[in-house]
Amino acid sequence: MKRDSELYQKYVETLKKELVPAMGCTEPIAISYAAARARDVLGCFPEKILVEASGNIIKNVKSVTVPNTDGMKGIEAAALTGAVAGKAEQKLEVISQVSQEQKERVRQLLEQNMVEVRVASSGLVFDLIVTVTAGQDRAVVRIVNEHTNIVYIEKNGEVLLERTVDCGGEGGGSRTEKDFMTVEDILDFARTCDLADVREVIGRQIRYNLAIAQEGLQNSWGACVGQTILTCNDSSDVKIRVKAMAAAGSDARMSGCEMPVIINSGSGNQGITVSVPVIEYARTLGSSEEELYRALVLANLLSLHQKAGIGRLSAYCGAVSAGCAAGAGIAWLLHEDDSVIRHQVVNCLAITSGMICDGAKPSCAAKIAASLDSSLLALDMAKNGREFRGGEGIVKKGIENTIDCVGLLGREGMRETDREILKIMVER
Hints:
The protein is an alpha+beta fold. It has 2 domains: 26-171, CATH 3.30.1330; 181-426, 2-methylcitrate dehydratase PrpD. Helices cover 54% and strands 10% of the residues. It has 16 helices and 8 strands. The chain has helices spanning 6-18, 26-42, 55-61, 75-85, 100-111, 183-192, 199-218, 225-231, 238-254, 268-285, 289-308, 318-333, 338-352, 364-383, 399-413, 415-426, and strands spanning 21-23, 48-53, 115-119, 127-134, 137-144, 150-155, 158-162, 260-262. Strands 3-2-4-5-6-7 form a 6-stranded mixed β-sheet. A hairpin with a 2-residue loop joins strand 6 and strand 7 (158-162). The chain is globular.
C-alpha cells in the first residue's frame, strides 16, 4: 500500500484514534469524564448530579470497580469521582490522579445521595447525559456513541455546543467511519506500512498492556483467573501463558487497578486481549521488533474491523472479536500465509460468536481466556487445512461475508438478549 495514498493515511489515523490510554473500565470513566466536563461548564462544584445513561452503559458500570477510589463501584461513585477530582482535559485518564482526601470526600457525598440515576430515553445503545446544578445554575453534557464524543453542552439554557447525533453510530454498530476497511487491505497495510508511522502507538500498547498483565499475575485481583490458569496448567506451554496473561490483565483492570491500558474498540479488555497474547508469543518465538509491530498492526485493525459492524456496546462479548484477531496476529508471527489467517478468523467466529456480554466484572477475565482458547484452536485447524465452510451455521462464503453476518448477529439479532440481560442484572 502506498504511503501517500488516502487509504494508507486512514489506517494510520484509525490506529492513532482508537489505540489510546484509559484507566479502568471505559464506561465508568466516560461518566467521570462527562461529570468533570459538566462541573467545568457549571463553574463550581455541583449540589446535584443527574446521570441519564443507556442500558448498556448501566450494565457495564454496575459491577466494576472505579479506579482510584479504594474499591468503590457504580455510576454514583464514577460521577462523584469525576466531579470531585476529574481533570477533563485528560479524557479517558480523567481520574488518574485522585488524592486520599478526595476519595474521602467522594465517600461522604455518596452518603448524601446527591447523584440521581435514570435510564436514558433516546433508545441509543451508547447515550450518556450528565446534568449538574448549583443553586439556579445548570450545566448539561451529553456523550453519544463513543466514550469521549461530546455532542451537546449547555449552560443555563444557552447551547454552547451541539453536533448532529448519528442514531446508527458506532455505539450501535455503524461502519460509517470504518467502511473503508477490508481484510485484504489490512493484510496489505500490515505488510507494507512504514513502522515510523505506527511505532509510537504500538510501542505504547506493548508497554502498557504487558505491564498490567504482569501486575495481574503477581498480585491478587478479582477472581485471579490468570493466576489460576497458570498454576493449574503447564506454564511452559505458550498457549497456556497467553491465556493466563491476558486474563490476568483483565483481573487487575476489572477490580480497580490504577494502571492505564491501551484500548481497542473503546474497551480496555479488548485492548488487552488483542495485544498481550501476540506480545507473549513474540517473546517466546524470539520474533524481531518489526515482526511484533506488524503482527499487532494486523491484530488491532482486524479487531476494529469486526467490531465496526457490531458496535461499541452490545450483548455480544467483545473478547470474541479481540481474541479472534489476536490469533491472526499469532499466525503472522508464525509466518503463516494470508489464506491461513483468513481461515483462522472464520474458524474462530464460527466457534465462539454468541458469547454474551453481561457487563464489565471479574468474570470477563475468564471469557477472555475462553475466547483465546477458541482462537488458538481455530489457528491449529487452519494451519492443518481444516476449516468451517460457507453455509455451515452463520459462516458464509468469503471472510468479509462472515464478518458482516457476525456483525448483524451482534447488532440486531442479540438486541432482545441485551434487554433481558439488563433486566436480570438490574431488576431481578
